[in-house]
């Protein structure tokens, strides 16, 4: 019934072919930069990364210098005031950027690696292993993370940043795993993957060469999502005093500020600034993710952007 | 009496480096006439069909030309004024009946909303008319209370056709209405349409890549290639004497042709890139009769007998028959 | 029915995983929690009194029986909601403490979550319908911002400006100090007055997620054939937006409820801390700072229970709104 030979599309590209890695990256960066929202996000993120790298140089005072008047409000010398121990809040904010961003990105990395391992495995295999992994993913998706983390963190011996990173990382993978699983299970049946399998390529090779490049944007989007989740969760734990209070970070600043009753003493800068930094840093991740949404879902692309 | 007049209609996809999918197309559909629109996928036939009903979706947009339906210029009327005319004057049937129905509403309520929003009708009248149109397409009246996922593909497509009849529209545009269906269901739907035509008068624009199917149903065929109309001819005469080399190739590729001793033939080559300005005849690179002039001169659409053809070579052949009137 | 059974199995499965985790975490952590606690009590370096250690072990429900038999015993207790004795609020049981706090949280967090879901989804519909227009740009950018700030921080800022500086709302608590819960109009108004600001901060902090999700779903649904056909049918714009687009777009958002609920609840718990709201979150906070392990673990289980029950409710709601799932009923 169908005269197949007369069915060639105008652009000539009907079957998706395996894109080269470099091309994929270039495409992602181009699309992100073209999109107004994700461009703003990238610029904001660059600023934060810059401050994270140079915070200790930019800071007007040392964070260990507690020789100033204690619990002072914002002034010309101390833009955001001083802590109850007499440290400069603005300096803490700059220096704390590094550990907050490291926390955020490390959690993102751990969660993404776990999400890839679990999501890709369960999407690529079928049968009981898929069922089990899917069940675990769904259970941890529903499980409220923070209370679980609180229980974990309170039993954990000692309190330090690395530990927080690990336990937050180990509880924030399910969302990404679920997204990757469904993507892999669609890709698995595509022509170019089947062709590679028929050609005798090993599963690992197929995953790395054929499947991964096709979901790079999802992986990165998942990373950004987990990084935001990780930062907010870590900040929550630190605020409760379950972090390492001696480590200068946005979260521990809020902990000390709250403990010192900063707001009621009129030290609004001490509370406002770290929170705003968290929000703006988080917003930059959300904005970049808008761009990724549009890469993986062309329908979201606006006509006029 | 002309119902639809399309004049020099052009449709672009995108703005920066636009794909001109429909190029200066003019065509008419008479009242109560069935017109078939055929061509390879990507030739712009669906784009044209949607543009006529003013359903073009971004990034598609009409860049020039007019569509006049029953004396109303649909291209120059704002959405609000157009709304009451939709479905009342022009209804559409989409390619995949599977997704044309709202999954969370029953068939009955999808029939009802279109009726009550166009006229004040009683629930009884709604039900009565719903039964009528379902009978027309041979679908059980019980589907009124069903959800789309409870119907088979063929049933859904017939329900969609029934829905298009609800308001007794002047024109129905069907875009590949049978493509996703198997041969048996395809046949049934074709028979349905022929029978409905006896009960109710309406014009039909039937869009399909399948020339054989189209020839069985319609009065007149419009063949499109690379966004242009390349041939317009009555269905009856087209089967015997296609003029444009592209139409001839399409006919030869029909399975029926093999019965007459011909062998199954595809058309070698691919259509041109529609982002570029066309030079010469768009079909020249694939044409078996190509001559030197075809590469440089763009052929106009000229009358050949009762037909219209866009070809420098075949339109010069000895005119057949004595009828020289042009539609 | 099969759908229902499957969701119910999942509910039980999740609960079982949570209970098991709760059982394993203290036992798998290095060191005996009882001796850790003793060490904290007595100060470091002091010899541990075996009798006291045993007392704490009994209180914590730690025995030296085999892990398996402990596990069975533990399961039996949990099923009867017996979580042992709280240790900061001795001699009250954990169950009693939770019972006191839970209604406040269910009221505050439950109501604000439902409100934020409704408002966020509604604004998401609006943003998608006015896509790339002013409303969309403002609403979407604002949500990207609110979506990224810590709930408790926003609560702190709100308390500072609205309660501390302007005195419009009470600083802390769920009702005025010196009154006790009664079912009088005055008391209810007082509770609403106290609850308004915490609720507002939860709604604003959590709304962005629903909003962005709904906007994406809407835009996806706008590309569906049935929406195009609805336009072709000449239906009124509002009807198309509501019955054809939003009605379908909300389905994945209800599923998304499952994923986001845990996060919203976690955020709300911290909000309670800021307002010293006498709910589960504040109780958890107190348990954490006082190292009240039995209470902490009991609260964890109750939170998990509430979240998955809410999820189950969302699943049931889904049956009502998606006829494709409902079919299993026949």
Helices and strands in order, then pairings?
The complex is a heterotrimer of chains A (305), B (327) and C (330).
Chain A: H1 21-34, H2 36-58, H3 89-124, H4 128-142, H5 145-155, H6 161-169, H7 174-187, H8 191-198, H9 203-211, H10 216-239, H11 250-259, H12 268-296
Chain B: E1 2-13, E2 19-30, E3 34-38, H1 45-52, E4 60-69, E5 72-73, H2 79-82, E6 90-93, H3 97-100, H4 107-116, H5 123-136, H6 153-165, E7 171-175, H7 183-199, E8 203-208, H8 211-217, E9 220-225, E10 228-234, H9 235-240, H10 245-252, H11 255-259, E11 302-304, E12 307-309
Parallel strand pairs in B: 3-8, 3-9, 6-7, 7-8
Antiparallel strand pairs in B: 1-2, 1-4, 4-5, 9-10, 10-12, 11-12
Chain C: H1 2-28, H2 33-42, H3 50-60, H4 67-79, H5 94-129, H6 134-146, H7 151-165, H8 185-222, H9 225-232, H10 237-275, H11 280-289, H12 293-321, H13 323-326
Can you characterise this structure?
- The complex is a heterotrimer of chains A (305), B (327) and C (330).
- Chain A has a single domain (6-304), classed as MetI-like fold, CATH 1.10.3720.10.
- In chain A, 66% of the residues lie in helices and 0% in strands.
- Chain A contains twelve helices and no strands.
- Chain A has helices at 21-34, 36-58, 89-124, 128-142, 145-155, 161-169, 174-187, 191-198, 203-211, 216-239, 250-259, 268-296.
- Chain A is elongated, with a radius of gyration of 23 Å.
- Residues 321-327 of chain B have low confidence and may be disordered.
- Chain B is of the alpha/beta class and 327 residues long.
- In chain B, strands 6-7-8-3-9-10-12-11 form an eight-stranded mixed β-sheet, sandwiched between helices. Chain B has a four-stranded antiparallel β-sheet with strand order 2-1-4-5, with helices on one face.
- Chain B contains eleven helices and twelve strands.
- The mean pLDDT of chain C is 82.
- In chain C, α5 (94-129) packs antiparallel against α6 (134-146), α6 packs across α8 and α11 packs antiparallel against α12 (293-321).
- Chain C is mainly alpha-helical.
- Helices cover 77% and strands 0% of the residues of chain C.
- The chains are: A mainly alpha (305), B alpha/beta (327), C mainly alpha (330).
- The interface between A and C is large, with 57 and 65 residues.
């Amino acid at each position: 019934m169908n005269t197949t030979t007369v069915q060639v599309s105008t652009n000539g590209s009907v079957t998706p072919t395996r894109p080269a890695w470099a091309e994929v990256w270039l495409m992602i960066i181009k699309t992100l930069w073209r999109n107004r929202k994700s461009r703003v996000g990238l610029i904001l993120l660059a600023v934060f990364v810059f401050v994270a790298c140079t915070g200790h140089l930019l800071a007007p005072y040392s964070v260990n210098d507690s020789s100033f008047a204690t619990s002072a409000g914002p002034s010309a010398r101390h833009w955001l005031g001083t802590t109850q121990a007499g440290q400069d809040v603005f300096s803490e904010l700059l220096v704390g950027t590094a550990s907050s961003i490291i926390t955020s990105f490390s959690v993102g990395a751990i969660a993404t690696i776990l999400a890839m391992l679990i999501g890709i495995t369960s999407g690529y295999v079928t049968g009981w292993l898929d069922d089990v992994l899917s069940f675990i993913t769904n259970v941890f998706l529903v499980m409220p993370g923070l209370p679980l983390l609180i229980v974990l963190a309170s039993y954990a011996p000692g309190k330090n940043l690395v530990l927080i990173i690990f336990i937050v990382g180990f509880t924030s993978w399910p969302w990404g795993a679920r997204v990757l699983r469904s993507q892999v299970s669609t890709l698995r049946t595509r022509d170019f993957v089947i062709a590679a399998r028929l050609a005798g390529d090993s599963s690992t090779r197929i995953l790395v060469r054929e499947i991964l490049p096709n979901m790079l944007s999802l992986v990165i989007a998942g990373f950004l999502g987990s990084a935001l989740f990780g930062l907010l969760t870590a900040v929550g734990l630190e605020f409760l005093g379950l972090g390492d209070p001696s480590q200068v970070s946005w979260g521990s600043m809020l902990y000390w500020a709250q403990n010192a009753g900063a707001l009621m003493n009129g030290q609004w800068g001490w509370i406002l600034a770290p929170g705003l930094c968290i929000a703006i840093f988080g917003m930059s991740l959300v904005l970049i993710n808008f761009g990724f949404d549009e890469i993986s879902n062309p329908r979201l692309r606006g006509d006029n952007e | 009496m002309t119902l639809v007049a399309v004049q020099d209609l052009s449709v672009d996809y995108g703005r920066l480096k636009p794909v001109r999918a429909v190029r200066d197309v003019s065509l008419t559909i008479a009242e109560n006439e069935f017109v078939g629109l055929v061509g390879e996928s990507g030739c712009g036939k669906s784009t044209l069909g949607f543009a006529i009903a003013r359903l073009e979706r971004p990034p598609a947009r009409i860049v020039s030309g007019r569509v006049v339906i029953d004396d109303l210029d649909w291209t120059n009327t704002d959405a609000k004024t157009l709304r009451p005319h939709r479905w009342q004057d022009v209804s559409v049937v989409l390619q995949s009946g599977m997704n044309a129905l709202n999954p969370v509403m029953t068939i009955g309520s999808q029939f009802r909303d279109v009726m009550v929003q166009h006229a004040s009708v009683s629930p009884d009248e709604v039900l009565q008319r719903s039964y009528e149109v379902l009978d027309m397409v041979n679908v059980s009246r019980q589907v009124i209370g069903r959800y789309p996922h409870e119907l088979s593909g063929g049933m859904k497509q017939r329900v969609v056709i029934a829905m298009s009849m609800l308001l007794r529209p002047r024109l129905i545009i069907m875009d590949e209405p049978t493509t996703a269906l198997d041969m048996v269901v395809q046949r049934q739907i074709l028979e349905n349409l022929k029978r409905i035509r006896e009960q109710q008068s309406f014009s039909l624009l039937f869009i399909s890549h399948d020339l054989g199917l189209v020839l069985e149903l319609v009065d007149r065929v419009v063949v499109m290639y690379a966004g242009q109309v390349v041939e317009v001819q009555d269905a009856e005469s087209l089967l015997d004497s296609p003029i444009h080399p592209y139409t001839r190739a399409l006919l030869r590729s029909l399975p029926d042709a093999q019965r007459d001793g011909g062998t199954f033939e595809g058309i070698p080559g691919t259509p041109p890139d529609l982002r570029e300005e066309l030079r010469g005849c768009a079909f020249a690179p694939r044409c078996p009769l190509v001559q030197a002039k075809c590469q440089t001169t763009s052929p106009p659409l000229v009358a050949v007998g009762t037909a219209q053809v866009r070809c420098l070579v075949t339109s010069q052949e000895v005119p057949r028959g004595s009828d020289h009137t042009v539609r | 029915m099969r759908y229902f059974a499957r969701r119910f199995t999942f509910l039980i499965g999740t609960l079982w995983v949570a209970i098991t985790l709760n059982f394993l975490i203290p036992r798998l952590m290095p060191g005996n929690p009882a001796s850790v606690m003793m060490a904290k009590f007595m100060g470091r370096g002091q010899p541990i009194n075996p009798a006291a250690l045993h007392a704490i072990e009994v209180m914590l429900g730690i025995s030296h029986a085999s892990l398996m038999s402990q596990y069975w015993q533990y399961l039996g207790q949990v099923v009867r909601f017996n979580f042992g004795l709280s240790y900061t609020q001795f001699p009250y049981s954990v169950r009693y403490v939770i019972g006191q706090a839970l209604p406040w949280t269910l009221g505050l967090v439950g109501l604000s979550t439902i409100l934020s879901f409704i408002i966020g989804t509604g604004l998401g519909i609006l943003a998608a319908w006015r896509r790339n227009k002013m409303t969309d740009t403002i609403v979407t950018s604002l949500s990207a911002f609110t979506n990224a700030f810590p709930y408790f921080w926003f609560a702190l800022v709100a308390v500072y400006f609205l309660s501390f500086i302007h005195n419009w709302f009470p600083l802390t608590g769920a009702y005025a100090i010196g009154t006790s819960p009664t079912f009088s109009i005055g008391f209810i108004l007082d509770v609403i007055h106290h609850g308004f600001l915490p609720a507002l901060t939860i709604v604003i902090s959590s709304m962005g997620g629903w909003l962005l999700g709904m906007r994406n779903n809407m835009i996806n649904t706008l590309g569906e054939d049935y929406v195009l056909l609805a336009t072709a049918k000449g239906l009124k714009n509002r009807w198309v937006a509501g019955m054809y687009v939003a009605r379908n777009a909300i389905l994945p958002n209800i599923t998304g409820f499952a994923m986001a609920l845990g996060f919203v609840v976690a955020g709300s718990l911290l909000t309670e801390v800021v307002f010293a709201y006498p709910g589960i979150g504040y109780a958890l906070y107190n348990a954490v700072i006082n190292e009240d392990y039995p209470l902490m673990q009991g609260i964890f289980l109750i939170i998990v229970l509430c979240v998955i029950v809410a999820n189950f409710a969302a699943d049931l709601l889904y049956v009502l709104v998606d006829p494709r799932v409902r079919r299993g009923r026949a």
